[in-house]
Amino acid sequence: MSIMPPDVRQAVADLMTEYCYRVDRLEDGNAELLALFTSDAVCDFSPIGLPEMTTREAIKGFYDSVFEDMTHHFHMIANHRPESWDGTVAVMTAYVMGLGRSSDGNTVDVKVRYRMECVEEGGRWKIRRYTISPGMPLPGSLGEIHGER
Amino acid sequence: MSIMPPDVRQAVADLMTEYCYRVDRLEDGNAELLALFTSDAVCDFSPIGLPEMTTREAIKGFYDSVFEDMTHHFHMIANHRPESWDGTVAVMTAYVMGLGRSSDGNTVDVKVRYRMECVEEGGRWKIRRYTISPGMPLPGSLGEIHGER
Amino acid sequence: MSIMPPDVRQAVADLMTEYCYRVDRLEDGNAELLALFTSDAVCDFSPIGLPEMTTREAIKGFYDSVFEDMTHHFHMIANHRPESWDGTVAVMTAYVMGLGRSSDGNTVDVKVRYRMECVEEGGRWKIRRYTISPGMPLPGSLGEIHGER
């Protein structure tokens, strides 16, 4: 395992920031957001009590609900830390304060960690595996808003 | 439109951070804060229900009130994203959690986005146009504290 | 006083982030956290009403209590600003939102500034002096949770 080169580190940190911008832009559908993931990406939100999604369809279904239900989103990301780099796969973690408001007036405020495994595909960095784990205790509204229904 | 060079990106991100430090230092007047703006700078806070200010005098007047009224400020900035670079003008957006407390005990807590158009002037990067737009729904106390009176 | 070189700036910012990760990992003791400090490090938390600690034993004692009492920690750091660099000592400040929950169910939420004086020791950057100062007014629970008992 070698040190993550500065350009890879910047690209992956930018990818994580871009994820926040796109998940917060609750307009015009989620195609731009989904374009940040590889076609075989896995999203494991089970550490915070939400689904693990192992197919493109499952991921799209999750974000379809998010974009349909939420009127406001604000995901602030910091504490970027390179975890590993093997020459192909870059793993980075970061802290996120995630705020949201749903159309029925419910609100959610989570303090979590993102871990993203990223690879370059056709000249663009993409997310291959995305895990969310808890920072502070999670509010009950998280399951109400984003849980399986 | 070309890619923003790393040194410009760093300088503009630093300028946005410096804005936060100076707007949070509610002592010794606001001359150091105002020095971050070009003489013809425009501040458009209308997307969050506050004034658009198109003259130096108007900007100074706004911050005079802020520095007079507020006892505490805390502006945490993250999610820096280069938007454009034409060789002269660098545009960057970022997310800000802005907290404040006024001398009458009122408090404000906003989650917003800053967009700053920046140019180099006499060897220093300065803000030419500064726009604030909402992230999460804004509290009523924002207008009470910073609105026109 | 010269400009802090980019590699020093990155190393010190990473050290501050690492401090957050390690103070938030409330498992397996605090040896990894303490390893971030020089043997003669001083922690001055008196600006926020907590102790000033001038010996390794005092610092260890403070963090022993923290790791014993707290069930959750979340320290989000941003607004990194290089303050000075003399060729040996790098000083950087940053803003921190520090959240915690103790085993008796008490919670703490502080908005503070960290100032760290850092030096390289045996190829690793370490904290020689660490000061916390208030951003927003501090909650009473801060002293209840972390104060001297």
Automatic annotation (TrEMBL), chains A, B, C:
The keyword Transcription does not apply. This is Ketosteroid isomerase-like protein. It comes from Novosphingobium marinum. Keywords: Isomerase. InterPro entries: NTF2-like_dom_sf, SnoaL-like. Pfam families: SnoaL_4 (PF13577). GO terms for molecular function: isomerase activity. Residues 9-131 form the SnoaL-like domain. It comes from the Bacteria.
